[in-house]
Predict the structure of Phospholipase C/P1 nuclease.
Amino acid sequence: MNIMRALLGGLLVAPTAAWYVDVHNQIGFMAEKFLNKHATSVIQDILEPQYNGSIGRAAAWADAYAHTHEGRYSYNWHFIDTEDDPPSNCTLNYAEDCSSKGCVVSAIQNQTNILKGCIEDVYNGSLRGGINMICSYALKWVVHFIGDITQPLHASGLALGGNRFNVTFGNITTNLHSVWDGHIVYLDANVTQFSNASIAPFFEKLVSRIYHKDDFVEPRHEWLSCSDPSTPLTCALHWAHESNMWNCRYVYSQIHNNVDLASSGYAVGAFPIVELQISKAALRLGTWLNKLVGEVMFRPRNQKILKNDHISPRL
Ligand SMILES: *[C@@H]1O[C@H](CO)[C@@H](O)[C@H](O)[C@H]1NC(C)=O
Ligand SMILES: *[C@@H]1O[C@H](CO)[C@@H](O)[C@H](O)[C@H]1NC(C)=O
Ligand SMILES: *[C@@H]1O[C@H](CO)[C@@H](O)[C@H](O)[C@H]1NC(C)=O
Ligand SMILES: *[C@@H]1O[C@H](CO)[C@@H](O)[C@H](O)[C@H]1NC(C)=O
Ligand SMILES: *[C@@H]1O[C@H](CO)[C@@H](O)[C@H](O)[C@H]1NC(C)=O
Ligand SMILES: *[C@@H]1O[C@H](CO)[C@@H](O)[C@H](O)[C@H]1NC(C)=O
Ligand SMILES: *[C@@H]1O[C@H](CO)[C@@H](O)[C@H](O)[C@H]1NC(C)=O
Ligand SMILES: *[C@@H]1O[C@H](CO)[C@@H](O)[C@H](O)[C@H]1NC(C)=O
């Protein structure tokens, strides 16, 4: 238990937590670029019609839902509160850190398993037109949480994931969590917000870099070192560990008192990290959904519908 945690431990309500709504939408629109046609078609059957088959449009639902009375139970599924002490100690201990109400790691496991059953339902003809809310929710949660888990402060318990860590950014007082959820991305893209209806140029460029350049601070092949949806707990833990490490490698180690993070060099130093983490989220999400659909398609009784298509993104 560190001092910050002791001071903050008594605070009850955590403010909203997640990549900003529009950033979530954009991660979803990026992921759509990696989906094969089978996954695209299955998604159309699972999502409610209002999303028009777009995981980009559906990607932010989970935050709104967590803030309703009905959806309050899912609030803890958006993060994992580690008990470590960045920047000197970044440690994630699943057994201790995942709350009894769940966490982003257990939620990815649970909803992925539910989603697999839903894909079965699509293939055997019992699910079409987004009529099963358990299935639509499972897909929307998987889409959202594979985004959340790459945000370093969603794998950190210090100061409630940085929500209670006040900072100045571009002359406004905000908190470190918000800075990583959105402010850094907006500054990097030089915009004040992104579309909720289609992919924005900043994210289109990331997709193009993923396909053609592989010039990120970690090589692309490592992003998918764990990406098998039949081991969702292992992969989600791997992803959370990786995000947690950024809190020691950058998020808390490069913070200096009383500077404006937008102009001090902090934000510019964070750009490559944010670009990496967002790109990872999108590629993993597309790959995860392709593989889930592929697993179901390759079951012997489903093979009659199988065509000779790629299951993984063509990179
Ligand atoms: C719904 O998606 C289809 C296929 O992607 C597209 O052609 C159509 O314009 C979309 N409709 C709306 C209302 O966005
Ligand atoms: C790091 O934090 C974890 C979790 O609180 C703790 O178990 C571990 O002993 C700490 N390691 C060091 C080197 O302080
Ligand atoms: C798994 O998801 C179902 C459906 O949303 C939910 O009722 C259940 O509590 C979840 N279980 C865990 C361990 O998260
Ligand atoms: C389709 O598959 C699901 C999941 O395996 C099963 O519960 C359901 O009964 C099946 N429906 C039909 C029509 O075969
Ligand atoms: C952080 O900011 C919030 C909201 O602006 C304020 O209520 C709180 O007192 C500040 N905390 C510290 C430690 O300055
Ligand atoms: C912050 O305020 C200073 C002094 O008023 C001004 O020079 C600077 O341009 C402002 N920066 C931003 C990002 O608004
Ligand atoms: C950022 O956008 C503004 C207007 O939207 C433009 O004037 C400015 O040149 C842009 N800055 C950079 C660094 O691209
Ligand atoms: C998208 O943004 C528009 C304009 O701000 C808004 O009217 C609409 O409700 C938003 N759609 C969703 C799904 O949030």
